[in-house]
Design goal:
By secondary structure, the protein is of the alpha/beta class. 39% of the residues lie in helices and 16% in strands. A 6-stranded parallel beta sheet has the order 1-11-8-7-5-6, sandwiched between helices. Strands 3-2-4 form a 3-stranded parallel beta sheet, sandwiched between helices. Strands 9-10 form a two-stranded antiparallel sheet. Strand 2, helix 2 (44-60) and strand 3 (63-69) form a beta-alpha-beta unit. It starts with a strand and ends with a helix. The model has no long low-confidence stretch (mean pLDDT 96).
């Protein structure tokens, strides 16, 4: 059976490290890092995600608040609220929970957040700097994948990697860091040879690419897309996908993109869902917030 890459345990380890760093930071006279999470509308999943982020922030010593607006809140009003937080010297990090209600331009909103406070890493400046291998704020989910590969000592240098999914916030930044030169300034390059697959990749080609991969990272939200016959024996499989499907007794359950039970018989290492990339994403968001606070204050 494959080695299970326990993201929940690793996330706790990282948050424990951050808690010590932030405690020491405050003890030498600095104000605690400060995070504001904006949520618009009543999407239950989004409210759960924000609640988890706020709790994680409190746990590591970040001063965090949720700012809630109902679904009638306009784009102009949201932009004005963000601009106010940009000017607030007591705020280090700003997060706008996605998705936003219809009628609000998410790209415009993300680009309103000051780049240095954009702890999600979605601003065009941060995306551009990432594409050039420059030090920047990296989207938390993508950073979670890279951190897991590093901490679990998965060799990437010269390896074949397949990223399934090309979203601008997940698949694209993962692919960029996997293929980037490890000698560049960002320090995030993994020196792999990367193939990107997506919804229009024919099924037989997807299988062909995956079977040649030493590392597969999948982020599509399509349950059981990645099956055992697509896995090279000993490969590492990172499952970023998350979908809620019907379970037993009328309940629902969370599943990933990977047919976990079967793939784990072939792969060398695999992440579970839940308990894999999800907890690590929250931990990386906390890391981004602390680093934003340090940079804003010139440290």
């Amino acid at each position: 059976m494959a080695r299970v890459l326990d993201g929940k345990a690793l996330a706790k380890e990282i948050k424990d490290e951050l808690k010590i760093k932030i405690h020491d930071w405050i003890n030498i006279g600095n104000r605690a890092p400060s995070l504001r999470c904006i949520i618009v509308g009543n999407d239950p999943a989004s409210h759960t995600y924000v609640k988890n982020k706020i709790q994680a922030a409190v746990d590591v010593g970040i001063q965090a608040e949720t700012i809630k607006y109902d679904e009638t809140f306009t784009e102009d009003a949201l932009i004005a609220a963000i601009e106010s937080l940009n000017r607030d010297k007591n705020v280090d990090g700003i997060l706008v929970q996605l998705p936003l209600p219809g009628g609000i331009d998410e790209r415009k909103v993300c680009n309103t957040v000051a780049p240095e406070k954009d702890v999600d890493g979605f601003h065009i400046t941060n995306v551009g700097q990432l594409s050039l291998d420059m030090p920047t704020i990296v989207p938390a989910t993508a950073l979670a994948v890279i951190e897991m590969l590093k901490r679990f000592k998965i060799e990437t240098f010269g390896r074949n990697a397949v990223v399934v999914g090309r979203s601008k916030n997940v698949g694209m930044p993962i692919a960029m860091m996997l293929h980037s030169d490890g000698n560049h300034d960002s320090g995030l390059g993994m020196d792999a040879t990367v193939t990107i697959c997506h919804r229009y990749t024919p099924a037989e080609q997807l299988e062909l690419h995956c079977r040649n991969a030493d590392i597969i990272v999948t982020a599509t939200g399509i349950p059981k897309l990645i099956k055992a016959n697509m896995i090279k024996p000993g490969a590492t499989v990172i499952d970023v996908g998350i979908t809620r499907v019907p379970g037993e007794q009328g309940k629902t359950k969370l599943v990933g993109d990977v047919d976990y039970d079967e793939v784990s018989k072939i792969a060398g290492a695999v992440t579970p869902v839940p308990g894999g990339v999800g907890p690590m994403t929250v931990a990386m968001l906390m890391q981004n917030t602390f680093q934003a606070a340090q940079k804003i204050r010139g440290l």
